[in-house]
Amino acid sequence: MANTERVLIAGEWRDADATGTFQPINPDSGETLEWTYPVSSRADIDAALEAGSAAAGELLRTPVDKIADFLEHYAGLLGESSSELSAAANLETALPVSPRLADIELPRTIDQLRQAAAAVRDRGWTMPTIDTATNIRSMYGPLGAPVAVFGPNNFPFAYNAVAGGDFAAAIAVRSAVIAKAHPSHPRTSQLLAKVALRAIQDTDLPPATLQIVFHMAPEDGFYLVSHPLIGATGYTGSRRAGLALKAAADAAGKPIYLEMSSVNPVFILPGALRERGEEIVGELHASAMLASGQFCTNPGVVVLQAGDAAEQFIAAMRSRFEAADPGVLLGPGGVHVVGEAVRAMQDSGAELLTGGAPIEGGGCRFQNTLLQASGEDFLADPEGLQEEAFGNANLFVVATDDDELEQIAGSFAGNLTGCLYSHSGGDDDPLYERIVPHLRRRVGRLLNDKMPTSVAVVPSMHHGGPYPATGHPGFTAVGIPASLLRFSMLQCYDGVREHRLPVELRNENPNGNLWRRIDGAWSQAGVAASDAA
User: Fold this and answer.
1) What pTM was computed for the model?
2) Per-residue pLDDT for 1 more than 80?
């Protein structure tokens, strides 16, 4: 198609076998941008699968240091391209170049790639286990198949299918990546892929180590995640689309790791409210308004106990919401999602305190919105009042007493995070001890006295949680090396001759630093010849 951008397949930018086209928009102005992108047909997907499968086989034979070299080189090239990349992302998402894109998100993306490279060299993610008495040895290793990555709209760099955490994790375990770009920021994804291809060529990795298509019909997405050649899928996005992809993958026995919806409940206990309510108002407002609420860890539901302090707290939040710039949502779909969530909460008994409607004028904006429900209403319809707005709309739930607070905590579905603010002198400790057992098993990350929006990119971070936050509570999308395990397989070797084993399982420690579990104890030593006999 004339003037239509090309897809990257088998190391070449080629004309797509397209079923249609689309153009991104500038959500700030509502204007259609100049670039036209293809909606790929199944022929493109088949070509990417064939090339990705061949590349995955080559990557199995690629030295791990070469994989690390690529990740480090790609990280460096991204730093050199910061201005161009940030300008493109700003145009497609309206997120500010500074500080959000150039100063925070792109450096985080670069750091993730470098952390992945370090994990590759360290090899610790493989968790080698050796039992000398039986000569049975096991470790986590590559799938030997390509991984599909579906990127979201809210992080054009850090979660991008061609640069973000899922990409870094898949490459680190020597899987080729078939990236499905998000249609809200195809230009940004295209520029990232061009940088990645340069790094692939510079480090002499297989050309199809990364491939990208920009859009596809839903049924072709189902085809991709369930195909015999696919190894696994990483997905971040809406619950509706995620569950549809999961059904297709599950039917074919293919693993898929989903990050979907989360309202991230925040309990502000009575002592904390009396002690520092005004301070917490500021923290909550800053967290809720960050990127117009378009964070997967946005504090969407705040639970208080009835009383004068709670009324003052809610009134202060309402004043701040009404005075604040509503900001820009990521696209027309974002406006629709927020509106639908607000209506659903109202249908379930919530009272609208302020906002509640789109803002006319060409851009993608929605009024800053606050709702309130009683504890009784929440317990009567907890599902309806846990509708993720994914934007600048938040719900207060006001409980009558301690017992109702505890019941509310036990009625939440799975979330990425859950937070409790409590009195610094211990006044809330008995109530805390009642609530936290319920919340602990319903959230991936439990916080005390801080809002959940910040996700530190450190090995101990868990960015996951029970359904519907994710499709499996045992895995994380952030936190290397744990995030690598999603795209690996546990491999066992029984009586295999030592020279035929992966180097991680041979008698000699491959780098002298690798921790291995040998006969029940973690050790950096080699396996003694007498033990291995």
Assistant:
1) 0.95
2) no
